[in-house]
Amino acid sequence: MDFLFSENQKKLRGLTRNIAKEYVLPKRSYYDETEEFPWDLVKIFAEAGLFKCFIPKEYGGTGGGITEACIVTEELSRVCAGIALSFAGTGLGAYPILLFGNEKQKGKYLFDLASGKKLAAFGLTEPNAGSDASAIKTTAEKVSDGYVLNGIKQWITNGGEAETYTIIAITDKKRGARGASAFIVEKGFLGFSFGKKEKKMGIRASTTRELIFQDCLVPKENLLGKEGTGFLITMKTFDITRPVVAAQAVGIAQGALDEATRYAKQRIQFGKPIFTFQAIQHKLADMATLVEAAKALVFNVALAIDRGEVKSSKESAMAKLFASDVAMKVTHDAVGIFGGYGYLRDYPVEKMERDAKITQIYEGTNQIQKNIIALNLIKEIVRKI
Asked: What residue ranges do the domains of the chain occupy?
């Protein structure tokens, strides 16, 4: 993949890989066990300038794009996908502002996000609105000095830790999905609080909480875009950010492949390393091929997005679909290569399989990704007729 990257992108990859090995690796098991949010590591990421990588220079960033976000996410996820989400979740919360914010909004929020002084989060999902995002019930009633939000958001990455939230709420119930709008909500706004911290199968170092709005007044200048464009903002954001989820999946898979290969060289059975057995060799070969294929797809899509060449949701959906399925298969096979040891928390591959599952679920389940891909295929055929 090296030929695809600029020198700056290669340097970013090297920097992130070193940070992951030196700082994240020693803390991986600790944060998985305690489920604490890794603020000490977030500080290190911020000091290294990682949060700047996808923010334009005029707002305190280094001028990169989604490719840089994917590079950082992959390298951090190669060691710990949960810890990586402090970065990736901030990207998801920041991109609606990057894409649809006015100059005043960008100036107010992006500098702090670029510096890592503050984290961001994105609030769409609700207790009864998962795959059917159009079923959201959170409302935003227009008043003289802004909007009053009421409702609950569920399963929000960085919830409670982030300072800046992009929230989708209904401003006109009569218009259905076209009646949704997007708002920038700050931690500390009166009427904005947090519910329970979820206990999860994987990504335990990432905080997942409810967001609760009880007559929360949001200033009118915090409306993002125009009224009624909330779902447009959501879909356009996901078109950009889904490759980051895919990069997370690639990182998990690469990490599992690394661990399985290392173990196969060290584990002695029947008087020789299990790597010498053809069954293990073939399994590792299949795993390596899948990882490389996923990596090629993900970064080709990311680079195409940054060049402005991706015109539909199809490519991003393909990247997430394929990479997340690869992550599940590769981590599952890695546990198999470890045998009984792979089932123990003393070894990292059981954690990697637990972490991999979420990549098939959030930012749209893989069944939703298949719907998106198929619908875009039909549209392409119709346009050609």
From this structure: 2-119, 121-230, 231-384
Alpha-carbon Rg for the chain, nearest whole angstrom, is: 21
Q: Residues 107-122: pLDDT tens digits?
A: 999 999 999 999 999 9
Q: Is 259 a catalytic residue?
A: no
* CATH code 3.40.50.1370 for 231-384: no
Which pTM value belongs to this model? 0.96
> What are the tens digits of pLDDT across the range 207-221?
999 999 999 999 999
- Check if CATH label 1.10.540.10 holds for domain 2-119: yes
Q: In the structure encoding, which two tokens stand for residue 226, read together?
A: 């125009």
CATH number, span 121-230: 2.40.110.10
Torsion, Cα 355 96 184 368, to 10 degrees, reads -50
Residue 287 contacts residue 326 (beta carbons within 8 Å): no
> How many angstroms separate the CA atoms of 356 and 60, rounded?
33
Give the active site residue among 126, 161, 259, 363: 363
